[in-house]
Amino acid sequence: xxxxxxxRQAVIDWVxxxxxxxxxQKALKEQFGISMTFMDVRLLVLExxxxxxxxxxxxxxxxxxxxxxxAADDPYADEDEEYPAAGPVGGDPGAPLPEGAGxxxxxxxxxVMAPGAMVSGEVTFSDGVKARWLIDQYxxxxxxxxxxxxxxxxxxxxxxxxxxxxxxxxxxxG
Length: 174
Fold this sequence. Notes:
The protein is α+β, with helices and mostly antiparallel strands.
C-alpha cells in the first residue's frame, strides 16, 4: 500500500517522537483509516528510513539505587560478585541460613548457553572450588566440578541453590 507524502511524514514524526511500531500501526488506523499488519508497518518504517528508538526498560527499585554505580544497564554486570548465602532450599530465598552457615558462593550465567542446555553457568564455592552447572531442556540439573570427586558442603549447596533461584528469576526463567 502506498502512502501519501503527508502520511509518510506523519509516520516519520511519530517514530521521531519515540512511538513503537504498534503505536504507529494504531495511529495509522485512527488518523488515516489505514489498516496495516505489524510486519507491513515494520517494512514501511524501514523503507522511509525512520529510526526506532529503544525505550529504556523499567528498573526495579534496587536497580534504580544502583544506577549511580555505573553498570546498572548491563544485566550481567554483577555476575562475578560474591553473594552471601540466601535462605534454605524450599524456603524464602531472602531468609538467612541457619546460624553458623556462612557459606558464600559466586554464581554466573553464561551469555551463550552450553550445548544441550536451557541455561548454564559457573559457580565458585566458598572453598574456592569452581564448577560448571547446567539445566537441560528437560529441567535436569548437572554439576561438573573442576576437581574430580569434589562434593560441596551442604551450606554451599543451599547457598548455590538459593542464589541460582534468584538469578534465574532475574533473567526471566521463573
